[in-house]
Amino acid sequence: MEHTCEICGKIGGTGEFYASVWSRCKECHKAKVRENRAAKVDYYREYDAKRFQEDPRVKARHERYRATDAGLASVRAAQRKWDAQNPEKRAAHTILNNAVRDGRKSKPKHCESCGAGGRIHGHHHDYTKPLDVRWLCQTCHWREHK
Question: Dihedral of CA 127/132/134/138: which sign?
């Protein structure tokens, strides 16, 4: 079956048109999508960021990748890069972790902000004071950084 593009007038078979959009050829449809994304760039940046963070399929794909040798190597490389770019933060984290390990600083079981249990993070407001931290759950810690 042949179709005619309403934009460029191209006539083609099913291979030239998407099954969901018979009124435009693939090239014209792609151009419209690019034009729409360019016109609403802020909306799509927010949409893509939210989708990336909340889509369970995306999360599952990333978890599968992290479990591979390439994924583990990528995580290690990213950590080394962060450490090299943030020596003051890395030093503060090391000092705090050693103090907790040695019993000089105690880590509470609950978040100081919301009272939630689970994994508790030490949040530094000033990295020049490595033992001066607020103990927060992951959610409150992320909120603090945003």
Answer: positive
**DSSP 3-state helix, strand, coil percentages of the chain (rounded to 5)?**
55, 15, 30
How confident is the prediction along the chain (146 residues), in pLDDT tens digits per residue? Answer: 788 889 898 888 888 988 888 889 999 999 999 999 999 999 999 998 888 788 899 889 999 999 999 999 999 999 999 999 999 999 999 999 999 999 999 999 999 999 999 999 999 999 999 999 999 999 999 999 88
List, in sequence order, every beta strand (DSSP E) within 26-141. 120-124, 133-137
pTM above 0.90, yes or no: no
Instruction: Judge contact between 33 and 42, C-beta under 8 A.
Output: no
